[in-house]
Amino acid sequence: MRGMSESRSIGLVIKKLDEFSSNRLMKLFLYASSLIFFFALVLLPPLIGIIENISYINTIIYEQSLLSRANSAILQSFIMAFLVSILDLVAALPLAWFIARSKSKVAHLIDTLVDIPFLMPTAALGYSILLFWSDKYGLSSLLGVKSLIPPGFFLVLLLHFVFSYPVIVRVMVGELLNYREIYEVAARTLGARPWTAVRTVTLPLLKPGIITSFLLSLARSLSETGATVMVAGSWENGPVFLFNLIEMSEAEVPSILKNGMLVYVSSFLIASSIAVFFLISLLAPTIRLPIRRVFPSLEGKMSSLKAVKLRDSFSLLILFLIVIIPSIFIAFPMFESILGGALGSAFSPFGPWKDYWRGMLISYGVSLLATLLNMVFGLPMAVIIARRKLGRVSTILKAIINIPIIVPSIALGVSLRLFWGKYASIPDFWTLLSSHITITYTYFVASMAAAIESVPQELEDVASTLGARPFSVFCRIIFPLTRYSMFSGAILVFTRALAETGAAKAVAKSREFWTLPVLLVNWIKDENVPITQKALGAGIYMVSSFIFLLALRLFFMKRKE
Amino acid sequence: MVALNNVSLEINDKEYLCIIGPSGCGKTTLIKCIAGIVDPDEGEIYVDNKLVNNLPIEDRNTGYVFQEIALFPHMNVYDNLCYGPFVKGYKISSVRSLIEEMLHMMELYERVKNYPDELSGGARQKVAVARALVSGSQLLLLDEPLGALDTKVRSLLRYELRRLVKDLGLTAIHVTHDQEEAMSIADRIAVMRSGRIIEVGTPLDLYLNPKNLFTAYFVGEANFLEGEVIGEGDDYTKIDVNGYVLYSARKVNFDSKRVVVAIRPEFIEMSKKTIHREALKGVIENKSFLGSSFRFEVSVENSFVVSVKTQFSTKALKFDVGERVSIFLPPKFLLLYPYPEEGLEKAISIE
Amino acid sequence: MPTIKLVNVTKKYGNITAIKNLSLTIEDGEYLCILGPTGSGKTTLLKLVAGIVKPDKGEIYIDDKLVNNMPAYERNVAYLPQYYALFPHLTVLENVAFGPLSKGLSVEEARRISMQMLEMTRLAWRANSFPHELSGGMQQRLALARALASGAKILLLDEPLGALDARLRVELRYKLRKLAKENNLTTIHVTHDQEEAMIVADRIVVLRNGEIQQVGSPLEVYNDPKNIFVAHFIGGANFFEGFVADVDRYGSWIQLRNNFLLRINDPNRSVGERVIVMVREEKSKILKAKKKREEINVFPGTIVNTSFLGDFISYTISLDNGDKANSKVPLAKAIGKFKVGERVYLYIEPEDVKVYPYPPHGLYKEIEVI
């Protein structure tokens, strides 16, 4: 009777809250505060920040060269995002298929490996890929060339391919596991070859999942800043351009012009990405793939065991060669520098490492705070959305909570910097926190809302007819059934916040407020910093986040038992 | 887990065969093996005297109707019907007349442009059957085809199913857990339990002369009483049940003296007066109305309870709860089985 | 003493009216069945009583107290949804104890009551299992135990046997009624199975499109259906179209298709009236040959189908006027007697005929359930 003793130990508190929960005013207060939090802190500041300062744009119309550089950067953003998402979809679908359908133990292992690039802080990931493909330390030395793939478009393509890949695999494995295979079996009893059945039945039915994963991949590619800056070379997309612009000194570009340019590019990026996302999510579901013809013998051959084996080997090859190995390559220089005795210097209280540890403190502090605030204020919002507490308003909310993740984070950062900047009394730390809250809000609310939606309404109904008040229903039914999603949502928020570079860079007015990823990007771009220091810095960052995540997971898993 | 245990069964051309049994008895696995959706670990499956074990699903040419119905949600009724010929690479014009005929037979004409989620449960089921038939199959496999429907719809559609199969000269294997459905439409019924086929026969055979205790229980309602054989004559057997003597017109063809006596409730005669020398006396404990008949529970001198069914009549209306009655169990309807080793309750348990 | 009263209750979902101006009183200790096809509003009716949905119009009283604004957790009404909604993360015992604990009982007391309920439903030995480890029948018993443990005196059952195998369903319906009666519960049981309804119910409410068609004891509803829909939905029935040809002091003559004349015992019809006549299948008798005694209401035809129903055999007769009729004959009287293709007579006693005015949208529309 675990449930019983638990409820006795905190019985009194629950009883009080329980009585409160049936009070209409309490309910109103709870929902209202979460709505206010969303609008006043998450959604409106970045939008207002940009709109208020839109007039800055007037200053740049005569700066033709800078303007055309900005325009081309924005265009490159979308080219890169679409290209990467399509390539990822093509490469990740067969692997997702393999993971979802194969009954072998290998599939389970692969399933775990796929997450590696997702769990790594993007700055560390970017450096690892830079070393592997481009630096003389990596593959290039093996092949005896100076730089196999120099920083630029192709290296960015590889990087974005790697960090979007796990997202697509994860979403599509979930979709495939939920998909009722019976449709495919039905198609085959009607005479369809396996490949034909997949093409004419399974893929059209999986379309919503494909669109979702495509959009997620698009969003990540449009938004990623830190790692992209490291591998971009002279190539620029929107975020890289903004990053470079912020770096420029007063001598290179006067601040009035700089502000104008920042506002221009940010507003353009924000507006166009919102437009693109809503267009795709509205139009894509109505597109029907033409299924005009079938080719029984050809499609029969494509369904043969040999063809399937070939496809599986090919997708595994891509997984290891392009995704996994380049991602974990950073371990080599890291261990090398540890063995070389560089670890000692890392703990000296002077020099560059002093900044490093301060950055780490800021990063963890901001991420933890952002996670906590989002959990507290996001939970009622998730309930509002999942249980349609506000009818049609809930549907609208469900759509607009996505805005923070589809907008490039550095553009959000620029906007927030302008918004909070006008209040002199607001401490910089608050601006930093606010930006991290905004960019991670969606992750928690969306995953929680999905989890709550998956709990049948009937369980709540029955619980209430058995005499349980709303708060008690939440504690004893909803919470235990969604606990795992709540923790994984929180962890997602935390890792995102910890890895965020773009927004952090944009809001940090001085080096004192550099978060760890911002500092690392700076180190890695600086040619005077030795490779041992770079690798160790990225390595400690990565290892600390792994340990932290592992500790959290162990803690929560134990609670779950 | 063994879903199917060494099953042998022969189905004739143009036969309507029902497979019945409780959940988890392996009946669905059996037809999935025939369709090729599940591969048997051992044994052979022949269709038209051709071994089909190694044929993939799409080459078996069986029309399969799923319990979940499984119409393609992204296609309208017409496209669902065309799917079979289409994926085989046939020209749609060559099957148009067949599709038209199906639509006509199933009264689905007005629905061709509808999507599955716009149809009622019954209409969806009809489309699923039509889709399986348009693919040109002569063997129809039906997996609980009516399970998802309302009782009334179910009882109407089952006759349409049989009519269709017979009109088109098809062979059908229909899996169901509803024994009434099976009895009303099947030429033959196979009763399954724990992965084995325990009895095959015509509905009437299984109802009147079930060879197996479980069949007697699962097909139609029956009273079961434990007793002991105390004498045998030329054409009767004398059984002692809790001190009451019953006669059966059946001979004991097994060793055990301990027996289970079974009788259908509607074969028991009931009256207010003593109708027969061998009649038992009892009290009506419960009465329920079934529409065309009444069902009573009669407690015989506090020693056992039997259920009795009588036709709807003014006479039946007058029997009331608490009333003393006399009941007679006609010997020709008294079935005899050896007492099962695992006990009566276990032997007829379906869970 | 729980009585339930609904007065002019209406419930809409968007454009769809699930319950239309419905009034109904359920007596204390009564076992009431709500019977109707899918989409007739049965489940909504239960949810209204449970307090899970609120009526748009009308009043709901429990024990003469208006409960429109009383939340579900204060109503003390036990609700069993169709697939039971057992709490998947709680053990069998914890599921049952949920109600007592919610009502503020001590842990010891909750455990005592729960174990008692589990014993009654023969589940005590599975107290520490989880719901998904139980068979379908056990899950159903657990749902009942949980409902009873909450101490509610009103039991709302939504298709409580629907998820079970047909054979088990037949067995459990007797037990369900016994359980409700032994615990003095007022029960509302929703089902689409007319046989189930007739066996368990004290009274049956036939529902269609959110409106009550008829309320009555199983016998009343079966023998005296108020309209064509009820006649069709409950039990097997033959319908014939015709019009009133003549009326005399003792009854009327109905002219069926192709001048077949049917005598009925109802003198209160008007000549020329278009009607539908209904005869139950078991009252539609089948004769090998005409006998003196039955000179009227005897119609020639051919047997086109036989179907075995267990205790009955059903014969489909294609009458010579083009109508079709089913005749249900008790097994003992039917074995080996009639064959498909055989010429026979259908005989209907005048007193067994029910007459209904011809429905405005035709017969088919009225009995359409598919």
What do these coordinates show?
The complex is a heterotrimer of chains A (561), B (351) and C (370). Chain A is mainly α and 561 residues long. Chain A has 29 helices and no strands. The model of chain A is unreliable at 1-5 (pLDDT under 50). Chain B is α+β, with helices and mostly antiparallel strands and 351 residues long. Chain B folds into 2 domains: 16-213, P-loop containing nucleotide triphosphate hydrolases (Rossmann fold), CATH 3.40.50; 223-347, Beta Barrel (OB fold (Dihydrolipoamide Acetyltransferase, E2P)), CATH 2.40.50. Helices cover 28% and strands 28% of the residues of chain B. Chain B is built from 11 helices and 18 strands. The relative contact order of chain B is 0.12. With 370 residues, chain C is α+β, with helices and mostly antiparallel strands. Helix content of chain C is 26%, strand content 34%. In chain C, strand 4 and strand 5 form a beta hairpin. In chain C, helix 3 runs parallel beside helix 5 (136-149). Chain C is elongated. Classes of the chains: A mainly alpha (561), B alpha+beta (351), C alpha+beta (370). At the B-C interface, helix 5, helix 6, helix 7, helix 8 and strand 14 of B face helix 5, helix 6, helix 7, helix 8 and strand 16 of C.
Structure in a nutshell:
The complex is a heterotrimer of chains A (561), B (351) and C (370). With 561 residues, chain A is mainly α. Chain A contains 29 helices and no strands.
Protein traits:
heterotrimer, A: 561 residues, globular, C: 370 residues, alpha+beta, Rossmann fold, OB fold (Dihydrolipoamide Acetyltransferase, E2P), six-stranded mixed beta sheet, elongated
